[in-house]
Amino acid sequence: MSLKAKNTNRKVSNFHQIVLLDEKGSVLESCNSIFNTSEFKGTNICDHFCFLESEFETIKNNKSNKIAFEKMQTEHPSLPGYYDFVFSRSIIENETCLVWDIFDYTNVYEEYIKVQQLKNELDIQKQFLSLKESPLHKYSSKGFFQTEYLANTNAEQSGKIDDLITSKYDILDLQKSSGKTSNKFLDLEHLRDNLEILTEEISKFIGCVKEGEAEEFEIRKTIDNELNNGFKESSHKKVVYYSEDLPKSLKMSKDVLTQIFALLCRDESTQQLYINTSLDVGYNKKDADKHFLTVNYTEQIDSPQPFSQNLSMRVIKISVLRSLVDMIGGSLVPNSDVKKGAFNIFLSFPVK
Amino acid sequence: MTISKKVILTGSFGVGKTSLFNQFIHQKFSDKYLTTIGVKVNKKSLKVNDEEISLLVWDIAGEVTQDKVPTSYFLGASGVVYVIDLSRPLTFEGIKTDIEYLKKLLPGGIVKVVGNKKDLLTEDEIEEARAQIKLPIDIVTSAKTGENVTALFTNLAEELL
């Protein structure tokens, strides 16, 4: 879904809302994609939101830069959850107004809380463990500190949890930057072990793509077809033999892989391949017994579209690409330049 | 006329900032530890010296060091309540650096150092903890029993007026 705030040319999605405020804090206009501001008509919106009450003067007096507040939790019935707020000024129809950008990251931040909770509890447990040698060791929290859990947690387990937490944070950052917090494709459970993603995991997250979302990622159908049809000869009329340890779901022809990479390198809004993207299959003269699929991908970084709706999606896609490439045993080589992001993907297939 | 002042609750994680916040705003306490991420804002009006003051309290997620807290949270703040857990030395290990940082960030702002979880320690233990802390504690509180919680915010409000 794509909405537009009247009088602005900025596109918003269903997790983003733009509210225009006057100098007194009254709502001039809103696209109401997250919450309906009509109930605040004629009133000062600061009276309804505590954080605005304390910040409005600062925001109003800020003439140049944007002011951003991350991870704001509100309990207002109209806007319950976790949000990122960005305040700026804009001139619309020759009049200056305050722009309140609201980004709903409730789903993502709720996951953050789970991870942070685990991390904090672990850190606190470690602190109490270290107190055994301290004069304050006799103190013990009777509150949240769970002594039984502490007794059962050894250093090795702690290390594993730390690793898990780190990887979870990576995924959550990725998930947040995607701007599509409700997309099952980005579900934490399916991506959290991204670094060691297995065939089953691939199938799972592909299986999670809803019918409505399949338009964006048509990989499932492609893979299903390929698996059902069995292995084919490639278009280059060379029989491709995959190594035995290659996951079954990836034993597909280069054509299919090429198609998958093309989908992953496609701009979801225009459905076009990115600038200077080229896909090719060929031989390396020095290594004639192998096929190489090369994907040369280059694009302008200063995209006119909002980060969350374009670039970040590419980040997700590139992450998936990276997983696929890693599994197949290929390499992904960055080749960036000023204002351009580029990488080459090299995949090799032994041929008979 | 009511005067509004922004007050920040900050300090390391798990020291009881949210518990102080809930005790002050809602007079409620839960033994269950729930991590805060980002910030939660609420307000409460107090009558101090015949004047009405509305404290807009920002409960900020605990970070080990204050320089990790987004500076935007501190914009326009008049006071800071820096909370430590008296039973966990690590929560006051960097207190000196943190307070210096906060004072630099908010020149003219009032910074209160609060030793929380009083209910877990004996008087002797509190003194032992005080001796370890590099700066004087302004007030010792217990969010659990509510001891000194209102006093903390009332004292702060008095100084803010």
Helix content of chain B: 25-40%
Order of helical and strand elements of chain B: EHEEEHEHEH
Determine the number of helices of chain B (DSSP H or I, runs of at least 4 residues).
4
Provide mean pLDDT of chain B, rounded: 90
Strand fraction of chain A equals 15-25%
The count of β-strands of chain A is 11
Of all protein chain pairs, which has the greatest interface, and how many residues does each chain bring to it? A-B, 39 and 40 residues
Determine the number of helices of chain A (DSSP H or I, runs of at least 4 residues).
9
Q: Tell me the quaternary state.
A: heterodimer
Using only C-alpha atoms, the radius of gyration of chain B works out to 15 Å
What shape does the CA trace of chain B take?
Answer: globular
- Identify the strand order in the major beta sheet of chain A: 4-3-7-6-5
Unreliable stretches of chain A, pLDDT < 50, 5 or more residues? 1-11, 133-158, 179-243, 271-291, 299-311
Give the terminus-to-terminus CA distance of chain B: 13 Å
